[in-house]
Specification:
The complex is a heterodimer of chains A (226) and B (420). Chain A is mostly beta strands and 226 residues long. Chain A has one domain: Beta Barrel (Porin). In chain A, 3% of the residues lie in helices and 67% in strands. Chain A contains 1 helix and 14 strands, in the order H-E-E-E-E-E-E-E-E-E-E-E-E-E-E. A 12-stranded antiparallel barrel of chain A has the order 1-4-5-6-7-8-9-10-11-12-13-14. Chain A has a two-stranded antiparallel sheet with strand order 2-3. In chain A, strand 6 and strand 7 form a beta hairpin. The longest helix of chain A is centred in the N-terminal third of the chain and has 6 residues. Chain A starts with a helix and ends with a strand. In chain A, 40% of the residues are buried. Chain B has 420 residues and is an alpha/beta fold. Helix content of chain B is 29%, strand content 23%. In chain B, the strands form 5 sheets. A 7-stranded parallel beta sheet of chain B has the order 8-9-7-12-14-15-16, with helices on both faces. Chain B has a 4-stranded antiparallel beta sheet with strand order 2-3-1-4, sandwiched between helices. In chain B, strands 10-11-5-13 form a 4-stranded antiparallel beta sheet. Chain B is elongated. Classes of the chains: A mainly beta (226), B alpha/beta (420). The interface between A and B is large, with 82 and 54 residues.
Chain lengths: 226, 420
């Protein structure tokens, strides 16, 4: 996106903000589920915030697939709009596209589009996402997640996240899971141009899915911002 | 290939650690009058579907991008980036840049404001607490309830009939933010009254100071504890927010950034009254924060400095309850409250006499805590009632209404000034 703007010779509007990040993680997880069988992954991301509140961003992820190769795991893109309110509440609506592969013995595609809406106040946010065709299987899903941040000291954040994915409708053959819960507790140390993370992440599903993505585990990561 | 992959991964991690985790050189603290603030827009918190698990866990990348903008501006204008502080309450990220000697901070701020990436820039303003001479409190013995020995020497005991007010309200559990110098939170007359204490002044020792301790005591000193004074709202709970520092025995100073951080904290921590016993030049950032506080129903009380135009800022800001002591000359539009020879708490577990509109404002903040508690029961709008005779606030009528038990034997005419 940054390159695209430059190529078009377009200067960003006043007060627009562009940012990028390179993140290395010991295990790439999506909603608690390991996509890399606990192998490291690298993601390159870009984000854009317009003064109107509109925003967009995306990441490309590459991972150690365990077969001696580093392969492209997939990409995630999103677009939306968020606004502050004088009473301290902010709201957010948008849409996202997830197109990645899960690596469990072999590679399975994980593709879905979602629309989402959320509210946030101080360091607490609640969001609901709806996918009309989860995993391109004809199944509708709803994902609700609650996240909170506590700042015990300058440059430190403790993050808690809990999510629930619920199958609403559609054939059960493709997506047999009725509910999936994911949990994350993380400590983050921020620096001027990056951050370090230590997290415990877990996912539970009913009924137990196949292939199994594994459950809880410790994940460490580092990011550089540019 | 596996060994090569591991080698590359380790190398990448080392590079990321070197680049990303390096702390920028911290500039030496500069005097407030040689600094400018640069305000960059802080986008509303929003979803980052790619970052929740795999990436930054938050808006770290966007924060780093704003820091890059500030560094670019500093480099382009020959300035030094000193510090920064995000203020999500007003949707702004605030960067402090130090200006070299020989350059006008006003001119630099005007130039910075022209940059497309900047919301605005302003000089760091300095504010002065509104207080005068101190003296030891007179030695008195405890009398009838309240049994606090200095109660009879308190102007509010006579003028506001505090003992009568406290039969109806004590400000129970109302949160009052004292944005001031450091409060002596271990003072025996403030025991249990401070809900939270936070220091927003950098580079100066955080010891108990005169002005903040005096203001806190007038608002919420413990009643009926056989020592010292009675606060106007002894049931209130204080947020002791140090935004000012004691320069010497007579001067207490604050600056835009320390005040902005303290007011942000007060708003985020659900203060119901914010006491600002200080005055200085108008300020856009502080004005924005006060507007947010007012929009959330928080009462903001400011002390008038008769020597400044319109009583000085923040008292002059629309919606702020401006308070004067009545002894420093006329203060049009300001409420008059006790502010002369007031006994109150002082650092080190002592008490002293203080004067100034700072302490008048503290009285009114305490009174609003009583009104807020009473309002929880009755649901009526918060209103201060001014006696036409003398022009001072009639605290009893403000709390209970002119038709209540406050009129006494002689009827008095009142004029009600609704809360802005």
């Amino acid at each position: 996106m940054l390159c695209g703007l430059a190529a078009l010779g377009l200067a960003p509007p006043a007060q627009a903000q562009l940012s990028g990040s390179l993140a290395l993680t010991s295990d790439y997880r999506l909603r608690g589920v390991s996509l890399t069988e606990r192998r490291p992954a690298l993601s390159l991301g870009a984000a854009y915030d317009h003064p109107s509140g509109a925003y967009a961003g995306g990441s490309v992820i590459v991972a150690d697939t365990g077969g001696g190769d580093v392969k492209r795991l997939g990409d995630i893109e999103y677009i939306g709009i968020a606004k502050h309110h004088a009473d301290g509440l902010s709201w957010d609506v948008g849409a996202s596209n997830t197109n990645v592969k899960i690596q469990v013995n072999q590679r399975y595609p994980v593709r879905y589009n979602e629309v989402y809406a959320g509210v946030a106040r101080n360091d607490l946010s609640l969001r609901v996402s709806y996918s009309p065709n989860y995993l391109h299987s004809g199944v509708d899903t709803l994902y609700a997640d609650l996240s909170g941040v506590y700042r015990p000291a300058e440059n430190w954040r403790l993050v808690a996240h809990v999510g629930l994915l619920k199958r609403l409708d559609g054939p059960t053959a493709e997506v047999p899971v009725r509910h999936r819960y994911d949990l994350m507790l993380a400590a983050v140390r921020g620096f001027d141009h990056g951050e370090l993370r230590l997290a415990w992440i877990a996912a539970y599903a009913t009924p137990h899915p196949h292939p199994s993505p594994g459950r809880g585990g410790i994940v460490v990561g580092a990011s550089v911002f540019f | 290939m596996a060994w090569l992959r591991r080698y590359l991964l380790c190398g990448l991690l080392a590079w990321m650690a070197a680049v990303g985790l390096a702390q920028a050189e911290t500039a030496r603290p500069e005097p407030s009058d040689r600094q400018v603030l640069v305000l960059l827009r802080l986008p509303a918190d929003h979803n980052r579907p790619d970052a929740t698990y795999g990436g930054g866990y938050g808006p770290g990348a966007a924060q780093a991008a704003r820091r890059r903008i500030a560094l670019r501006l500093a480099h382009a204008h020959g300035l030094t980036l000193s510090t920064s502080w995000p203020m999500p309450v007003v949707g702004l990220d605030c960067f402090v840049l130090s200006v070299p000697a020989g350059q006008s901070t006003e001119a630099v701020a005007a130039q910075l404001s022209q940059d497309r990436a900047v919301a605005w820039s302003e000089p760091m303003h300095v504010y002065r607490a509104e207080a005068h001479a101190q003296a030891p409190a007179p030695a008195l013995t405890a009398g009838a309830p309240p049994n606090d020995p200095l109660y009879r020497a308190q102007p509010a005991a006579r003028e506001w009939r505090l003992d009568t007010l406290h039969r109806y309200a004590t400000g129970r559990n109302v949160r009052v933010a004292v944005v001031d110098s450091a409060v002596d939170i271990h003072h025996p007359d403030l025991a249990g009254q401070v809900l939270a204490s936070q220091n927003f002044v950098e580079g100066r020792p955080d010891n108990p100071e005169l002005h903040g301790t005096g203001v806190a005591g007038i608002i919420a000193a413990v009643a009926d504890n056989r020592i010292g004074i009675v606060g106007v709202a002894p049931g209130a709970r204080l947020l002791a927010l140090r935004a000012c520092w004691q320069q010497d025995a007579q001067a207490t100073l604050c600056n835009t950034l320390s005040l902005a951080r303290a007011v942000s904290f007060a708003i985020e921590h659900s203060a119901q009254v914010i006491n600002l016993s200080l005055a200085g030049p108008p300020d856009l950032l502080l004005g924005r924060l006060i507007d947010v506080a007012l929009a959330r129903g928080i009462v903001v009380v400011g002390a008038v400095d008769p020597g400044l135009a319109r009583g000085g800022f923040p008292a002059s800001h629309p919606g702020v309850v401006a308070v004067a002591s009545g002894s420093g000359g006329p203060s049009p539009g300001a409420f008059i409250a006790p502010g002369r020879d007031v006994p109150t708490t002082q650092p080190g577990g002592t008490w002293g006499l203080v004067s100034g509109s700072s302490y008048s404002a503290a009285h009114v903040s305490g009174l609003f805590a009583l009104l807020r508690e009473h309002d929880r029961r009755g649901g009526s709008p918060l209103t201060l009632v001014v006696a036409r005779v003398g022009g001072g606030i009639d605290a009893c009528a403000s709390l209970l209404g002119a038709a209540g038990p406050c009129g006494g034997a002689q009827p008095v005419a009142y004029s009600a000034i609704p809360r802005p």
